[in-house]
Specification:
By secondary structure, chain A is of the alpha/beta class. Chain A is 30% helix and 25% strand. In chain A, a hairpin with a 2-residue loop joins strand 23 and strand 24. In chain B, helix 4 packs antiparallel against helix 6 and helix 8 runs antiparallel to helix 10. The chains are: A alpha/beta, B mainly alpha. Bound molecules: flavin-adenine dinucleotide.
């Protein structure tokens, strides 16, 4: 709606921030007091890089990210539903360099030597660090569902990393016949964006309706027996797409064990499901680089000190975002953004030799069920005896008895959240 | 030996209490967490309201009204209940000291003109200086996001939302949706 003006506004904003940074002495690289390397420039890493520079411009920050552009998973279900373009979810890293002095290197980190504190890249570069922030997101557990590997994903998309996968899923929805069946395979906990598969089911139903294929069915085969905002989703599905969406919990034989790509068939313990579109969201773990660096536990996630996000396994390495275990915070973009700020403040203090400051965190997950029907879950968190816990009496889901007007407002605010958090990260 | 051990117990307890006492996060730490929705420093880049530079007393009162449910909200009640009084004061102090920046917005000049007329007759006694005026109880309107202004005006208009400020509800009650959009456009057009 205010597409153009928003861009202009961002320039105004970042201009102000840049001007305020000019107040700091300009230091040549030799004059930096410490160097922090950030691996991964997504919701967590890019926020941490920017906020570290804001906290203390005498810290040199090098962000190493393998892709030239970040494509947000959040709101990518709107791309699946033909409601927005992938370009609207894509962000470059230039503002981080121009306005905040973050050095951005596009390369893949292949090795982290925690002993000598050196990071090596596929391009053959080496970077020493005083502290390292690892924010690489998740990797998929290929073959955890038998037959589902990266090749299978080229035919049966997961679309759980935004980009070509998202478009592939959309094209398959466009090509399928009316009366066809779409299966969504929903993973076991923990995984990134707990409400994501259920939002997707709704927006797929929306798109099929738009395409005149309302006789089609969307079936979720789940490895779980309950899910985030369940009552709100079930109500939203029924109100907006009566009879189109069904959910099969693990206890009703919903857990998918095997996939046959050629036959487009999913196998559970007792049943076989043949579908027109199969969206398989595989089980997840911390990204491979975290595993390779020895940062993960036996379940594949990274335990950390939940105030500083310093790894429990390796000194001077901090892990934030989807890859880390952050108490009761879910794996979400807002969580990663909030953790990054707490981590940046802690690192700045540690470099100063002072105590890390008392933390405060927020997460919110908006879900869009129809273009004018949104719901949300929110929480405010604090540290309690070393664990991140949600503040009692606060947070929770949108009310079940909310009016149509409120649902519409929440859909508006969901998109506004995206614009604001991405301006906080990349602007 | 025994007596020295006994002596040290209260000391240990005191130390333990100091350690577990709930340290108050800094103003910035608390406020940075809001930026995910309200934009960096509260300078929102889209309809969620700009809160940078609003009056401190207004911010405090509004957060308390959200917290108690006196002011209805889609989400702020759930957020505000996460903070105690001291934290709300800290948040208010932080955002009040930030700078309001009016974003450029695409607006319909006809609506802006119509809105100006209604403003002059019905709203300018409180929202002086074309909505730029603010004091402890009245927030700035000039340069706020149009969509947000329209949403709040609709909230005042919908009696079932039970907004706290009765005067505002009475002030908008005689208008229709078109008028409300015109008013929102007018304030949004101001710098
Ligand atoms: C469909 C869907 C919808 C979602 N909707 C929402 C939502 O509405 N709200 C919300 O809050 N969250 C949402 N999420 C979740 C959100 O996208 C993630 O939680 C968030 O991206 C996590 O941030 P992160 O920084 O940990 O990882 P990411 O954002 O995934 O960033 C990791 C980055 O690290 C880079 N990287 C990885 N390994 C290396 C390496 N070895 N070297 C260099 N670079 C590397 C990657 O290229 C990537 O850019 C959604 C997710 C999905 C899939």
């Amino acid at each position: 709606m205010h597409k153009l003006s928003r861009r202009q506004f961002l320039t105004t904003l970042t201009g102000t921030a840049a001007a305020s940074m000019l107040g700091y002495p300009l230091l040549s690289s030799g004059a930096f007091r410490a160097r922090v390397i950030v691996v991964g420039g997504g919701y967590g890493g890019a926020t941490a890089a920017k906020y570290l520079r804001l906290a203390d411009p005498r810290i040199e920050v090098i962000l190493i990210e393998k892709d030239e552009q970040f494509v947000s998973c959040a709101l990518s279900n709107e791309v699946v539903a033909g409601e927005r373009s992938l370009a609207s979810l894509s962000f470059g890293y230039q503002p981080l360099t121009s306005f905040y002095g973050v050095k951005v290197v596009h390369d893949e980190v292949t090795r982290i030597d925690a002993e000598s504190r050196i990071v090596s890249t596929r391009g053959g570069e080496e970077f020493g660090y005083d502290r390292l922030i690892v924010a690489p997101g998740v990797s998929f557990k290929w073959n955890a569902i038998e037959g589902y590997d990266s090749d299978a994903a080229q035919v049966l998309p997961h679309a759980w990393k935004a980009g070509e996968q998202t478009l592939l899923l959309r094209r398959q929805l466009e090509a399928m016949p009316d009366g066809g069946r779409v299966y969504i395979v929903s993973p076991p906990n923990p995984y990134k964006c707990p409400p994501g598969p259920y939002e997707r089911a709704a927006l797929i139903a929306h798109y099929l309706t738009q395409l005149g294929k309302q006789r089609s069915k969307v079936i979720i085969l789940d490895a779980k027996d309950s899910f985030a905002k369940q009552a709100l989703f079930e109500q939203g599905w029924e109100r907006n797409y009566p009879g189109m969406i069904s959910w099969v919990p693990a206890s009703a034989d919903g857990r998918v064990l095997r996939v046959d790509v050629k036959k487009r068939t999913l196998y559970t313990e007792f049943d076989a499901h043949r579908g027109d579109v199969l969206n398989v969201i595989p089980p997840q773990k911390a990204a491979t680089i975290a595993e390779a660096a020895g940062l993960t536990n036996d379940k594949g996630w990274c335990p950390v000190d939940q105030q500083t996000f310093e790894s429990s396994n390796r000194e001077y390495i901090h892990v934030i975002g989807d890859a880390c275990i952050a108490g009761s915070m879910p794996k979400a973009g807002y969580s990663a953004n909030s953790q990054a700020k707490v981590c940046a403040a802690a690192i700045s203090a540690l470099i100063d030799g002072t105590a890390p400051p008392a933390p405060s965190y927020i997460n919110t997950c908006y879900s869009i069920i129809a273009p004018d029907y949104g719901i949300s879950v929110a929480a405010v968190y604090r540290l309690d005896k070393g664990s991140i816990v949600s503040v009692e009496g606060a947070g929770g889901s949108s009310p079940l008895d909310a009016s149509a007007w409120e649902r519409k407002m929440e859909a508006t605010y969901a998109r506004s959240w995206f614009d604001n958090i991405t301006s906080d990260i990349f602007g | 030996m025994k007596s020295s051990l006994l002596w040290s117990i209260p000391l240990v307890l005191v130390l333990f209490q100091i350690h577990t006492a709930h340290a108050q996060p800094s103003h910035r730490m608390l406020a940075d967490a809001c930026a995910g929705c309200h934009g960096p420093r509260g300078q929102s880049a889209s309809p969620m309201p700009i809160i940078a530079g609003l009056p401190e007393a207004y911010l405090e009162q509004t957060m308390r009204d959200y917290k108690t449910g006196k002011r209805p909200s889609t989400i702020m009640g759930r957020v505000a209940r996460g903070y105690d009084d001291a934290e709300i004061d800290a948040l208010a102090a932080f955002f009040a000291s930030e700078v309001w920046i009016s974003p450029p917005q695409e607006l319909d000049p006809k609506q802006v003109k119509a809105g100006k007329r209604i403003h002059r007759d019905g709203c300018s006694s409180c929202h002086k200086d074309n909505g730029r005026f603010q004091n402890d109880t009245t927030p700035r309107l000039a340069g706020q996001w149009k969509d947000y202004l329209q949403i709040v005006l609709e909230e005042y208009w919908l009696w079932e939302r039970r907004m706290p400020h009765l005067f505002m509800s009475i002030a908008v009650s005689e208008f229709d949706e078109e008028d409300l959009e015109a008013l929102a456009s007018f304030y949004a057009s101001q710098r």
